[in-house]
Each structure stands twice: as C-alpha cells, then as structure tokens.
Amino acid sequence: MARRRTDLGSFFTFGGRVPTTVGVLLALLVLGTVWGALDRRIPDAAALGPESIVRGEVWRLVTWPFVETNVLGLLFGGYMLFWLGQQLSYAWSERRFLSRFLVYTLGAGLGTTLLSRVWEDASVPHLGVWPVVVGLLVAWAMLFPDRQMNWFGILPMTGKTVAWITVGLTVLSGLFAGGARGLARVLPHLIAIGIAWMQARGFGGRRFGRQARQWWADREMRRRSKHLKVVRKNGSGDRSKWMN
C-alpha cells in the first residue's frame, strides 16, 4: 500500500481546507498568542508602539497582528482570517492575498506611527489581527458588493452593506471608547480600511500605474495640441490669423 505523501506545505493547509499561506498566517497567530500568554514580555515586544518604532524597533511594524491578548480575539480573528483567506486567495491568488495582508499590516503601522508625530493620542500601542481582518473584510465586500452573506450567521446582507456596517461599527467603537482619544485606538483599523478602499478603486498596484501613465499621456497630448486649430471644410475659421 502506497504511503500518503506529506510535506510542510500540505501540513499548513489543515487537510486542504485553506491555502498554505493562510495556514501559515493562522499558525503564526496561534503561536504568537500562546507564546504571549506564557511570556508577558512578548506582547510588549511585539506591539505596534509608534514611540518604540521611531527609536528603531522596526520589527514591530510586522509583529503586532500575530499576538492576541484574549481567547475571544484569537477565536473570532482567526475564524475571520480563515474564512476571508479562503475567499480572497481563490479570487486573487495566494501570493496576492499575502501581499495585501502585508500591505495592510505595514500601511497601518507606518500610518499610525506618522500620525503619532502630530497626534499624541495615536501613540497608544496596538496588538491583534483585527485591523488587518477589517481591511480584508472591506476588500472582500468591495470585490463582491452583491454577494449575500450572513453576518455572524444571523443577518443576511450584501457585501456592500457589510462594508458600510464595518466602517460604521469601527468609528462608533472608537467614539464610545473615549471620543477623539478612542478613535486613536482604532486608527490602525481605519488606515487598513482606507488602504483596502483605495486598492479596490484602483489607487495602487499595476492598475494605478496604468491609469497614471494614461493620465500623463492625455495631459501631454492636450498640452501639445493647444496651438492647433480645427479647419472646417468651407475654409472658415479666421485662417489669416494663424496661417501665412
């Protein structure tokens, strides 16, 4: 009897349920959370701390989503990453899904760090995968605006509605957490949402490059054609003013 072939890549698919890249991200999330529970120095070292990043601790820009501070955050965040990873890896490809995950992670980290230079409340540390998950959820909703889903298995709604509800709940949770200071606590979420929206609208990547080149070509064409004038078939158009 032939022995079943196993390798590291297939191990991270969890029996073929998710793509390998999604499985690796889930494994890192579980590992980081468990390690952080066993060693309380890990959350402090992995957190998105703008002040620490400015001092040179740049690893925090990529480690902060992989440590949850409670079991519910791990369960719900892991489930959403599992579900969205399946959907988006199929729609985009595994490589593109991983690149989007990293873009949301780095973008939220860098954006929060830069804003902390002018907004003192934004210097609060951040931990957990939810900001990145929220960005992925908005990306999914904009990719499938008419697709039906059940919100937490209860309320049926379209992707477009999910996007609006996600943005609204994020803003409200920040406001109820303390007004403007509370909004600083959801700043990575809002930045990830903004990145997802811009990418969905084409403001980024190859599509943006093509649009930018086309805009520049059109601009140059209009600039070079300003001295030209349409001549009608009957010869009218004040030819003597522009032609010898």
Describe this structure in words.
This protein has a two-stranded antiparallel ribbon with strand order 1-2. The protein is mostly helical and 244 residues long. Mean pLDDT is 83; it is low at 1-5. It has helices spanning 8-11, 20-38, 41-46, 50-54, 60-63, 71-92, 94-115, 130-143, 159-176, 179-185, 187-200, 205-224; strands at residues 148-151, 155-158. Helices cover 64% and strands 3% of the residues.
Q: Please report which band the strand proportion falls in: under 5%, 5-15%, 15-25%, 25-35%, 35-45% or over 45%.
A: under 5%
Structural class: mainly alpha
Query: In what order do the strands lie side by side in the largest sheet?
Result: 1-2
- Number of helical elements: 12
Shape: globular
Q: How many β-strand runs?
A: 2
Q: Rounded to an integer, what's the Rg over CA atoms?
A: 24 Å
Low-pLDDT regions: 1-5
Task: Estimate the mean pLDDT confidence.
Answer: 83
* Main β sheet profile: 2 strands, antiparallel
Secondary-structure element series: HHHHHHHHEEHHHH
The first-to-last residue Cα distance is 94 Å
Portion in helices: 55-70%
